[in-house]
């Protein structure tokens, strides 16, 4: 067993460690944990960006401890970061088709829980693909994106309200929104508790909250181990079980309505598999990665992935809650 007070002593023995801060469990406040994946396991990261993934001994939440400071993590959100690479309009037709299919699933999900068009806020909106579709069906759209590069793309291509910054800095619209979405975002935040409280304050009564996060029960977590994309060190600061999410929602004033697999596992699975092969079998890995990223290759995998999709074991899982 380790304590927050003792862990920095371990790390300060190395001179090439980035700026770190020790934290307590964001969910239950406990300072007791055990190491789940040691920093030494992240062999593909520079030493200064390695940190432990630990598990709280009280609530079982998995999180990075110590955490890298925001300015250190910023190095991993540059223009080359995959979600920022290009707007959907610039993709080749086949990739554009697959991406639009996922976006339409998200749009239809919102419509199924909010009957009338209203105000929607997308937290971590990236280059704004989802909001573009919501705007096209008559919703009043707002987006928040901390990354300057992605926010500028969204502003340039959308012509809607994009706030470049953090949710904690977004003021003046309390109780205005009918729906707030976090598509693959909550695991990147320094305090999910704070993010959900802020979202609660911005929602109207009975407003809908949607979270899309890595699925702890995913088929590929066991298959890929430390290379699983759901861990994605050092960007993912938290990994949530379904019970963790239920506790978070209850703690911040939400009622869970449903959970299900919404989005295809293909790209998440491929990213983890490619990383594993590139590190363990470099020559083979480069060839396989090239083949996996050829447009149309996913058609071979989709029937297999759909089996896990229906079992709620996709790489990511979606939660819908209500204020």
Automatic annotation (TrEMBL):
InterPro entries: SAM-dependent_MTases_sf. One of its GO terms (molecular function) is methyltransferase activity. One of its GO terms (biological process) is methylation. Keywords: Methyltransferase, Transferase. It holds the Pfam family Methyltransf_23. Coiled coil: none annotated. Gene3D superfamilies: Vaccinia Virus protein VP39 (3.40.50.150). This is Class I SAM-dependent methyltransferase.
């Amino acid at each position: 067993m380790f304590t927050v007070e003792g862990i920095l002593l371990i790390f300060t023995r190395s001179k090439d460690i980035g700026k770190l801060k020790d934290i307590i469990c964001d969910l239950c406040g406990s300072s007791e944990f055990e190491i789940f994946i040691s920093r030494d396991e992240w062999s593909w990261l520079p030493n200064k960006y390695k940190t432990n993934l630990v598990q709280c001994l009280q609530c079982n939440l998995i999180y990075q401890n110590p955490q890298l400071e925001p300015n250190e993590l910023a190095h991993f959100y540059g223009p080359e970061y995959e979600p920022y690479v290009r707007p959907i309009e610039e993709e080749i037709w086949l990739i554009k088709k697959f991406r639009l299919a996922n976006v339409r699933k998200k749009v239809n999900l919102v419509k199924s829980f909010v009957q009338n068009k209203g105000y929607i806020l997308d937290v971590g909106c990236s280059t704004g693909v989802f909001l573009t579709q919501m705007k096209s069906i008559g919703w009043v759209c707002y987006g928040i994106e901390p990354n300057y590069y992605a926010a500028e793309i969204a502003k340039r291509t959308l012509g809607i309200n994009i706030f470049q910054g953090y949710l904690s800095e977004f003021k003046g619209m309390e109780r205005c929104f009918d729906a707030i979405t976090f598509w693959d975002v909550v695991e990147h935040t320094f305090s999910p508790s704070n993010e959900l409280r802020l979202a609660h304050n911005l929602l109207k009564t009975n407003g809908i909250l949607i979270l899309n996060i890595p699925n702890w029960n995913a088929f590929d977590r066991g298959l890929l181990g430390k290379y699983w994309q759901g861990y994605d060190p050092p960007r993912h600061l938290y990994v949530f079980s379904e019970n963790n999410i239920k506790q978070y929602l209850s703690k911040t004033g939400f009622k869970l309505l449903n959970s299900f697999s919404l989005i295809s596992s293909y790209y998440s699975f491929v990213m983890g598999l490619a990383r594993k092969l590139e590190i363990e079998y470099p020559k083979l890995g480069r060839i396989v990665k090239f083949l996996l990223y050829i447009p149309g290759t996913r058609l071979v995998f989709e029937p297999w992935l759909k089996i896990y999709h229906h079992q709620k074991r996709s790489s990511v899982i979606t939660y819908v809650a209500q204020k």
